[in-house]
Amino acid sequence: MTEVFEKVCEFGIAMGWKGIAGEAGCTEHQVDESWWFAVNPHLEACECSMGVKVPAGHVYIQFNGWPFGLVNCYEGMCGAGRLANEDTLIEALERAAERVKEVKLGI
After folding, report:
1. How many domains does the chain have?
2. Kind and range of the H or E element at 96?
3. Three-state secondary structure call for residue 77
4. Can you give the pLDDT at residue 107?
5. Does residue 27 lie in a domain region?
C-alpha cells in the first residue's frame, strides 16, 4: 500500500467515515489551507467537485488548487516540489488526523 493512500485511509478512520462506497460521488476533504483530496470508493470512475474524473479506487490530490497526485493502494504519482511533496502531504494528513482525534476527545 502506498504511504499516501494509507494516511488518507487513517484520516478517514479518524473522521469516522463508514460506508462511503454507498454514497454518491467522491468523498472530499480540505485537509488544511493547502491540501485537498477526493476519494473515489466506487467500482467506476466518477467526477469530483473540481471537475476531475477520479478513477475507481483512487485518491486525487491537490495542493493550493493545483493537481498534485493520483494514488491507489498499489501505486501512485505525486509531485516533488520543495513545498508540495509526499512528505509534506503525509505530515499534513497526520496533523489533520490528530486534530480530529483531539476534537473528538475534547482536548
Report:
1. 1
2. helix 86-105
3. strand
4. 67
5. yes
The whole-number pLDDT of residue 1 equals 62
Say if residues 38 and 50 touch (Cβ distance below 8 Å). Answer: yes
Within-domain flag for 91: yes
By C-alpha distance, which of 49, 87, 23 is closest to 60?
49
Residue 13 lies in a domain: yes
In angstroms, what CA-CA distances link 14 with 20, 30, 66? 14, 14, 26
pTM of the complete model: 0.94
**β-pair partners for 54:** 46
> How do residues 48-87 score in pLDDT, each as one tens digit?
999 999 999 999 999 999 999 999 999 999 999 999 999 9
Judge whether 107 lies within some domain: no
C-alpha cell at 68: 498534485
- Return d(Cα 35, Cα 44) in angstroms, integer: 25
